[in-house]
Amino acid sequence: MKKVLKAAGILILLVVLIIAALFIRASYMQLIxxxxxxxxAVGGAIEEKYMAMGEHRVSTLTVRSDDSLKKxxxxxxxELETSDERYPVVVYSNGTxxxxxxxxxxxRHLASWGFIxxxxxxxxxxxxxxxxxxxxxxxxxxxxxxxxxxxKIDTDNIGTYGHSxxxxxxxxTITVQEHSSMYxxxxxxxxxxxxxxxxxGWHFDLGKVSIPVFIIAGTEGxxxxxxxxxxxxxxxxxxxxxxxxxxxxxSGAEHQNTASDADxxxxxxxLWQLHGDEEAAAAFTGADPELLTNPLxxxxxxxxxxxx
Length: 308
What we know:
The chain is an alpha/beta fold. 38% of the residues lie in helices and 20% in strands. It has 2 domains: 1-30; 34-303, Rossmann fold (3-Layer(aba) Sandwich). It has helices at residues 2-28, 36-39, 45-51, 104-111, 129-142, 165-173, 194-200, 222-228, 231-240, 258-261, 263-275, 278-281, 290-293; strands at residues 58-64, 71-77, 87-93, 116-120, 153-163, 183-189, 213-218, 245-250, 297-303. A 9-stranded mixed beta sheet has the order 1-2-4-3-5-6-7-8-9, sandwiched between helices.
């Protein structure tokens, strides 16, 4: 009997160890495939251009942190190390329970278009504080004579984006955090709707937003369309924004896929807003913005009347 109990105990221990190993493996798994820039369907010439990788070779830096950030990740154009130029910055906020290090392919893509992209491994991003700490890090490096980023940060061109809980975090990042006034633009991907956010204690105030915002959601899956961001709640959130704004839903995209499926237009948005790229701007401006006629998107709206 003792042998049977011992064997059962060993079996249970093995099962627990296997589950733990799978959990650890999952926590490091890349959630954005490396080939998404070439495999994701596109519906317009501008989207196609900016979904592809940019011309910049990308370098990376990982900095360990003793607080909830755990680590800060920096993706940047490799020529920054020898260049006299200053580069725009974009800070990413994570979805619930996810780590920034699971989205490396997403940052690499944006960095290849000339951005310094920052992320962290804090799985609770809603307050905007993790993004605040992450931005504070690179701003301090901008003043550190021993840093590769010394005087390489374009402090007049800083943006932020995030997905799910991170999509809601974007609104707190640009309104209530210490450096909120430094942000020039934002993209919110499948953000937690206001009602759900309040129930979870993740409040944000859209009435405080004063910079251009682009909101993107998907059209597939109960989690995306009935829990996270039902269409009517997306419309309500959009209506409350009094700043320059745009919105669209990526047809066929489920919750987890909006960050990658819509990345062509996310990249175009940041290139327009932070780089002044006129070709990228044509996705959103002019007599016939490409976003409005792209067959892969629906429920598009663009209201930039307060924009420059």
